[in-house]
User: Fold this.
Amino acid sequence: MEAALTPMHIAMTGTTTIQDDDRLLLERMREGDREAFSELVVRHQRQVFYLVWRYVKNDADAKDVVQAAFVKAWQNAEAFRGDSSFRTWLYRIAVNLALNHVRDSGKWKTAELTEEHASHEVPGMQRLVEAEAAQQLRKAVETLPPKQRLVVELRVHEGLSFREVAEIADCSEDAAKANFHHAIKRLRSELGNAE
Amino acid sequence: MLKTIDGCIGVSELLEAYADGALHGQEARRVAEHVQHCASCAADLHAAETVLRALRSLPGQAGPRDKAFWNSMAAEITATTAKVTAPRRWYRGAMGRSFLAGGGLAAAAVLAFVLAMPQQVERLAAPSVDGSLSETVTGLADELQSEGTPHRTLFDELGIPDSDPLDMIDDLDDNDLQAVGAEFTDGV
Ligand SMILES: [Zn+2]
Assistant:
């Protein structure tokens, strides 16, 4: 079990290789292989954590949601048929859980720069202005309609292809692009014609 | 308002994806050619690029985490998962083996399965199991039920959830379930 927690293939290059490996690991996981599952956890937990964090806004909740997402993935491995990547499937589960969590906790926290960033900031005028602009933009993203926001998060911050975004957002690729279009237009107008 | 030309429709909604470098081939060429002649779309493209640059420059909110953080999170996930049941396919595997070898634990798992989801067992077992074995299992199930054995105990003993694991995705809507279960075809 120790070995399974050691990050492996971190230097691996090429999405295809990683996805192929995910596929093999997933196949083993579906047979109940816990080591394969652990390897998938090590591979994907960071990205899922950061994605979830942007919705829940704190470490404790983000960890809970990530954990729940992996547990669901483990329990429902059979439902995954491998036509999409393990990552998009996992993201999909995690995003649903994160949205639920935010809904259930009854409050959409407003965008705030984290303490880490706040404390590192030298209060120079320029930085203050930048920080404010960043906060405003972040807040604008968070108040987008849910699907538009999801597309922005996945596309801009996770760097996923529109095909992957569409899989996670449960829509066509064209619809994902359309959501992206509306999201960016909206952000632009809310930020007063970003120029 | 800047001057627009014919052909904005079908291009204007792709400007953001184009600005993000997500278009290829004919689609990308169509946008590139259009903005050379359409001042309005060219301005929108420029604005989209500006917004995207600003988005990309946003600080990562969660901040960096050290190795210990990830290690402990992975360990927690693994430990939690160890307490819950194996993937759903495990039942299938157990079922198949039990029919062949008549193993006790596997047989009990089948029984639990039968009590919970008779239809599912029929569906899953039908292609690989002959009629007499199916009857045996059904018979065992009947026997157990007639004795009034609470099947919860069986589930508890075996550590098997008493519902279809798919039901646990209670927070996904119908579309989500479709996509998770039905849309993905068996390509492995
Ligand atoms: Zn135009």
